[in-house]
Amino acid sequence: MTIPPRFRTSGRRRGRYGWFTTVVGALPVLAVLAACSGSPNSVPDPSDEFFALSAGTPRAAGPIDSFSWALYAEPPTLDYTAAFDYPQNTILSNVCESLMRWTPGLTVEPGLARRASNPDPTTWVYDLREGVRFHDGRTMSADDVVHSLGRQRNQDNAAPWAQIFENVVAVTRTGPLQVTVKLKKPDSQFPQYMATTAGVVASKAGVEKAGGNYGSTGGLACSGPFELGAWHKGEAIELDRFDGYWGADAKARMVEFRFLTDPYARTNALLSGEVDGGYLIPTESYARLDRSVTGTLYFGEGLSTVNVNVTNLKGPLGDIRVRRALSLALDRSGFVDSGLGGAGSATTSLTVRAAWARASDATRKAAFAGLPPTEPDLPAARTLIEEAGAAGATLTVATSSIGRDVSRLATAVQTAGERIGLDIRLKSVAPNAFTALFTDPGAREGIDMLPLTYYNSVTDPLDLLANFRTGSYLNFAGYSDRRYDELVDRAIAAHDPERRMEIETKLQRHAADRLLWIPVAEWPTSVFLNKRITGAPTTIAYLYYPWAADVGAAP
To answer: Is 293 contained in some domain?
Structure first.
């Protein structure tokens, strides 16, 4: 995502969360976090301003004709049902809108739905805005919503977001501008995900007209402040301001997204002014860009953890002792320095502290209690390898030249393995093919582990923890535990945040104990803006919020 979504291969998908009436966003806790969110065992110096999180960038002083933006890879498609990774969502968030909207403050507010109501525990009613125009000239109706959500639910589409709809019985038109969603059972997560790409609405007629070419050629028939312009394959995608937009006009007439797969070329383009800005700044370039007179480097809440995703439990990694040994041998602090440019914090927690912002102090403390230290313990790791009889075992970890965060983590895993008697081999994957590791099981053939930066798509720890439920999209290793599944179901059914997060502390301990992913570090969002533009949000919300509409001329 997120692929879900929610991740960049050392990149979520995806990630998810947040009702617009009750959600408490992560930004209010920034003052408490001070610097990059840290684990209970490793907290960066809050006096180090280089790592301080910013709530945003200065507002634009006025309009601008155009600006350019750097992406580390070209999206394979812009079909919203397949938008489960950074490149796709960074673009689509400005073109395709959802029923609800994730804000830069990481709260949820009305989007294409002017109101969402919950008349009973298994019913959600969305009343739509009047007069919303799609880019194909048609006006939004309830039929478009039913069709759009139906595409996500359709298993034939292999949509990464389909799991969000597993609890949905029906999506029906209950009025010209009203859609009702019926659930099998209470679901605290579904309404939150309607602010992500899972809740995107496009013109039914426009999608059907495009057929199999939807997302690859022509328009996207969505309703955002920008519409898809020219797509120069292998080079760039242009977005043009949509003058029929229902909300405030975008400040720029046009945005060009440049595909710069080489991190050094990307950095040089930012320093020279060849491109005006970018998210996911190469970590090896933080210091250069921070010192630059060309523009400003910002950090914001990312709700992101860097992990080693265990993709194969049938080989040596099927033995929990081998996974624990690798975790004990990892030099997390060294990786933060070399792989994240020092802008992060070592952690043994799968979830970030900011995701627990709505929990009580006692529940938040329980979620992080008992986690192992972040410092390596090589003697203990070697003992575990001996007990498992795994000395000399061969394992393969994927790597890529996307950025130093990916390549250095793969190397750190290889080094950790060598120090405890494992034979870790690296398999290099091209940047444009790296996203396939999250969508195509065949691409993961022969790979035991891969770097995974997972970002939450909603402000709730369950967004990450649900990935280890039987059959979940990112459960690449096929882990299955009935007790864990039952806890996930209980958490999903709990609408009260405190009660839900009490259950989630048990999920956190279970997943941490079994090391289904090996957590390595927390990582903030990074964005660089040159001196001619400003207005872009600094938080991870840019993946679902029309951020480019806020970018304009700097004062």
So the answer is: no
